């Protein structure tokens, strides 16, 4: 039974075998450059790249379908809000005004739509990248990767432990919820919303207590095995950088360099097709 | 005489949070290469003693210590938790909760990672220790994919990888079934011999631990050491019962047969004890096994099928009948469907086909809440059930939600609290209760709804003999007074042997047997399938070539 929220699975792919550090560096560099750049050609290239990556990582659509829907929902909501709150921002940004339809406050310009297209591309490329990172990196490798790029190991390990305990807490939640229903708290769809909310509160308390118990035990178990003795530690999951990893980092650097070059060529972050 | 590895002189300890000391003037020595059992009922101070040894006091629990505490000749209190952990490795009670790594390999490697050892040498050592513990093929498995025994072996490997000479075990049997517990004890004995370790085991399940060839037993009660001697001396002196501990079942049998224990050589070792002269005396107390008279059928499970995922059936057309007023045990190895079955009865899960009939009527359409009015269910972990802050409110909450009027609530709650012996504490905050009291409280909160059937999941887990007896007396009382049917899911051998009337053996979703405990615990094949063990009574009977050993199992029922 795989309850894990982050669907790491051992997959026999090139992406899986790359070290967590290389993937983390690649992910951070690509998302940063992609967030900075408003060069549509560059963003489209990133989108294509990230879908190629998700493909070669053998990640099935159904594994991330739910998350994808959530991200699309939030993304679209975000775009609508921008249109409502700042419909002229695109025109301001590009310094020109090609009116499509509407008038007054609600004038919709090509520039506005183009600006929002760029935003959309940013969502569309960064989502598959994060999925690739999370789905192909073992939690402890992820932690060791975080540690390598400078995050303190206690924080990194906390991240890994959270991933370790998600299934346990989920099953606790389920058990407590059932036990409370047997006591008489109706939280099924039969009851009214306020009743269900009250019922849900009844689950939180035991869940908090049982989780505190766990934390107590685990922190003792960790101290008894000398966690925190030195200000660094080694990682069993640590993997030596191989050609693959250097390849990934060099590839990332090239893409970042192109992004920066484009900034100079465009004379700024924007690529302006309206001139 | 070599130097003791552990030397406590007149140690008294009081937790900051408590008014009275938990340990009073405790003095003892443990020598290199010894295997020592520290036994005591809950609240006897044995866990506090362990915390003083491994440094959790004063690191995690503060308090006042007086007296002298030496480990390898050096004062324990002057050393950090980290320094101590290199000398004394601790395996905690809950094999699951102490699993730190994402996988077996990482958990074993954990201490060495923290010592900043190079990864290559860690990997070699992990491979070596995993091999020794039979985990070589399981290095990449997550804790969810392991059995209790495997998790505990991982914990042991993770501690032994330090090459320390002293191992401390806090209730190693608590989360294991009898078969896994027996295997763990054998493993500890082997390792001790192989690596010349000193082993200290904190436990209250005496019978199982004695199987690990213990050299010495220290019995604690109320924060004091009340006995300290070889297992033979301890059993002969009969100090166990007086201090809230169970005597081994075969010793109970010998007493019942009128065999004088006091001078019996090798009395603590079932394989060496010489009782041949008493053979006839023992055989004579055998009682024929009479299955309990079954009253009217109450709950009928009819061709129930269920699977957690499509295509993987756990139960395939399971059928059985539960009768009014009986005390039924359900046994079977972990993951074979015991808890799933109780969830099907309480409505936590719905069968894919088949029916569950209460008094001839199907309950499948009823909600969890409606079913709880008839079938009460007490979870293993009381912390999963408690939602209120005071004892009274906790018991009253189910009645309030069922809109019972205030006067009736008052009366029923008080009556119930009197029955579980918590009425004097009804205004207490629940956080001040011990584990055993919380357990009784959760039973009361379920029983106050007056269910006809009470299902208990591992009611004796974490309870010592005194509290178990209290709990059983109380269950017996509601069983006879109110005709409450009691269904117990357990692998506690003492509970099975002494209390349960009929037992269902469920293995991999199959109803393997429907029998009496006496017969079950004398059937080697069945016992192995259910991950239990035969009773020591049975093994003694076999040694003496007494026919029908189940009769002796029946004789020790209280």
Automatic annotation (TrEMBL), chain A:
The keyword Lyase does not apply. The keyword Nucleotide-binding does not apply. One of its GO terms (cellular component) is plasma membrane. Signal peptide: none annotated. The chain crosses the membrane at residues 24-54, 66-86, 120-138, 246-265. This is Energy-coupling factor transporter transmembrane component T. It is found in: Membrane. InterPro entries: ABC/ECF_trnsptr_transmembrane (IPR003339). Keywords: Membrane, Transmembrane, Transmembrane helix. It is a multi-pass membrane protein. The lineage of its organism: Bacteria, Bacillati, Bacillota, Bacilli, Lactobacillales. It comes from Leuconostoc pseudomesenteroides.
Automatic annotation (TrEMBL), chain B:
Its main location: membrane. One of its GO terms (cellular component) is ATP-binding cassette (ABC) transporter complex. Residues 6-247, 299-533 form the ABC transporter domain. The keyword Mitochondrion does not apply. It holds the Pfam family ABC_tran. InterPro entries: AAA+_ATPase, ABC_Co_transporter, ABC_transporter-like_ATP-bd, ABC_transporter-like_CS, ABC_transpr_CbiO/EcfA_su, ECF_ABC_transporter_ATP-bd, P-loop_NTPase. It comes from the Bacteria. PANTHER family: ABC TRANSPORTER ATP-BINDING PROTEIN BC_2655-RELATED, HEAVY METAL TRANSPORTER. Forms a stable energy-coupling factor (ECF) transporter complex probably composed of 2 membrane-embedded substrate-binding proteins (S component), 2 ATP-binding proteins (A component) and 2 transmembrane proteins (T component). This complex interacts with a number of substrate-specific components, including FolT, PanT and RibU for 5-formyltetrahydrofolate, pantothenate and riboflavin respectively. Belongs to the ABC transporter superfamily. ATP-binding (A) component of a common energy-coupling factor (ECF) ABC-transporter complex. Unlike classic ABC transporters this ECF transporter provides the energy necessary to transport a number of different substrates including 5-formyltetrahydrofolate, pantothenate and riboflavin. Expression of the complex plus FolT in E.coli allows 5-formyltetrahydrofolate uptake; 5-formyltetrahydrofolate is not taken up in the absence of FolT or the EcfA1A2T complex. This is ABC transporter ATP-binding protein. It comes from Leuconostoc pseudomesenteroides.
